[in-house]
């Protein structure tokens, strides 16, 4: 199949990887031939799936949800913010709240389900799915830039 395309377009093409995704609703978003996202959902519709795929391409979440964050990544972030908060001259109870706030904000920005939806920042992706009676099963993202 690749050989036929190579002959037709005259460019060397290599297959990077193959992944399978399935679900009731599949949404696809491709941006400038470099970024592509495929979303699998239960419930919802193709437009919602495409919008979520577009959001993923734009916001580049590192994780689907907070439960998916590796412990070593949590520890690294905690160390960075502990050092930052320790240099503050605030009382200990305030430092504790500052640390908690910084960590929660950071992880909500890098987890898809906690991110503010790009088309309506008043909604998180989790709330958007819930409002539309949909569940995100999985997604595949190839973001090259």
Please, could you describe this protein's structure?
- The chain is an alpha+beta fold and 145 residues long.
- The chain has two domains: 1-61 and 118-145, Elongation factor Ts, dimerisation domain (Tetrahydropterin Synthase, Chain A), CATH 3.30.479; 70-110.
- 44% of the residues lie in helices and 21% in strands.
- The protein has five helices and five strands, in the order αββαααββαβ.
- The chain has helices at residues 2-9, 46-59, 71-86, 92-110, 125-131; strands at residues 25-31, 35-42, 116-117, 120-124, 135-142.
- The strands form two sheets. Strands 1-2-5 form a three-stranded antiparallel sheet. It has a two-stranded antiparallel sheet with strand order 3-4.
- The chain is elongated, with a radius of gyration of 20 Å.
- It starts with a helix and ends with a strand.
- The mean pLDDT is 92.
Strands, helices and their partners?
Elements: H1 2-9, E1 25-31, E2 35-42, H2 46-59, H3 71-86, H4 92-110, E3 116-117, E4 120-124, H5 125-131, E5 135-142
Antiparallel strand pairs: 1-2, 2-5, 3-4
Helix pairs in contact: 3-4
Salient structural properties:
single chain, 145 residues, alpha+beta, Tetrahydropterin Synthase, Chain A, 2 domains, two-stranded antiparallel ribbon, 5 helices, 5 strands
Summarize the structure.
With 145 residues, the chain is α+β, with helices and mostly antiparallel strands.
